[in-house]
Amino acid sequence: MVDMSTISHSDMSLLQAMADNELPADQSAALRARFGTEPMLADAFSELAMMRELLHDMPAARPARSLRLDAQTMQQARGWRWWLISPPGGQFLPALGVAACLCVALLFGSGYDQVSAPDQLHLKGSVAAPMLADAPAEAAPADDSRVADASVPLVAQQPEPSMLPLLGVTAGLVGTVGSARWLMRLRKIQRKAV
Amino acid sequence: MTAPSEDQILVSAALAGDNDSFNQLVERYQNRAYGLCYRMLGDADAAADVAQDAFISAYRHLPSLRGEFRPWLMRIVANACRDVLRSNKRHPSVSLDTNPRDEDESPVLQIADTTPNPEEHLMRAELHRTISVALLQIPLDQRTVVILSDIEGMSYDEIAVVTGANIGTIKSRLNRARARLREIFVAAELFPTVRRLIADEET
Fold first, then answer.
1. Is the pTM of this model over 0.95?
2. What is the pLDDT of residues A1-40, one digit of tens each?
3. How far apart are CA B203 and CA B193, in angstroms?
4. Cα distance between residue B94 and residue B144, in whole Å
5. Closest alpha carbon within chain B to A65
């Protein structure tokens, strides 16, 4: 029996790598050349190879039943990642993107004037108070009266009206491009499958 | 650009909605997956359940697969086994006191019997049983790498993918695992048995 304590850690690592066929050819040849002068190395390698072979020759373990998945299990297993690559109604995504683009542009473009008119603002006192920080305390109504001080430049905090349709179009475009890329990836996967 | 492997084709088909393609992958790897579970857990029923769960998990996460299917799957299987062992504090269910004949008749471990000699057959069965029990006696991390390397025949690089450890750690774990196994084999006087079997084969 080989006394492993007489073999250095580095030599043991080399022997192990050689047994695993992970040692470069030149190092392997150099190690084999040492076997003649250092029989302990040869014996250790032989024992290591035998152990490896013993494990490799273990009988195959086979399951008593098939591990195939049925359609119902697969359906239940589909998580959000599956939804991302094959969303329901995925073929309509680009059309939906364009529609979203138009909707957002129309919403921001046409409805802005009504929303931004100061005399039409309906702000509760609790909401208005932080915005009216510079106004005297009594200016903020104690009850839920809905009149905000027109002198406070609320409109200045909003984006320019002309920017809003542009923002809407940009958001819509981003949505459309994203949807198209998503669909292209799906098509690529399907093409690969074919 | 390299041609896609058969696994990649099956994965793509499965992602495109072809359930049968995924089941072809299951059939291709179920023995390996089950084998790893069985060696790690030492329990046939638990191994089948864990392997089945691992395939379900693999299917669930298939869209996030990047790279090769086999090491990715084996990583899922190894992690599933680790989770079971850690949560259940499962202990080896194979005993050295088990009657080798019972083990021999197990439908799970089908020992390749190429020799008609009953004495040699029994010796081999005893040998394999001792090795199975020895594997269960070494720490989990070491057991995983030694099974993947010496039984499954994986390279260090593949084991690195499966275990998520670096090559140096894998070599170190293998070294310690083999040293521990060697101690057990020596204590069980396994090497003389093996030498005798080899000598018998040669004659």
1. no
2. 667 778 888 898 899 999 998 899 999 999 999 998 988 8
3. 15
4. 18
5. B48
pLDDT for B65-107, tens place per residue? Answer: 888 899 999 999 999 999 998 887 645 544 433 443 344 434 4
Residue B150 burial (10 A CB sphere; 0-12, 13-18, 19+):
buried
In whole angstroms, what is the distance from residue B39 CA to residue B35 CA?
Answer: 6
Query: Does residue B178 come out as left (phi exceeding 0), alpha (psi in the -120 to 50 range) or beta?
Result: alpha
Cα A34 off chain centre by? 52
Tell me how far apart the alpha carbons of residues A152 and A134 are, in angstroms, rounded to a whole number. 9
Whether the per-residue pLDDT at B57 is higher than 70: the answer is yes
**Chain B contacts of A20, Cβ < 8 Å?**
149, 155-156, 174
Interface list for chain A against chain B, based on CB atoms closer than 8 Å: 1, 4, 12-13, 16-17, 20, 22, 47-48, 50-52, 54-56, 58-69, 71, 73-74, 77-79, 81-82, 84-86, 189-190, 192-193
Number of neighbours of residue A4 by Cβ within 10 angstroms:
16
Over residues B1-32, the pLDDT tens digits come to 566 788 999 998 998 888 999 999 999 999 99
Neighbours of A191 (CB within 10 A): 10
Distances (CA, A) of A154 to A130, A137, A143: 11, 18, 21
Q: What is the pLDDT of residue A111?
A: 58
Cβ neighbours for A85, distance < 8 A, ≥ 6 positions apart? A185, A186, A189, B15, B63
Number of residues that make up chain A: 194
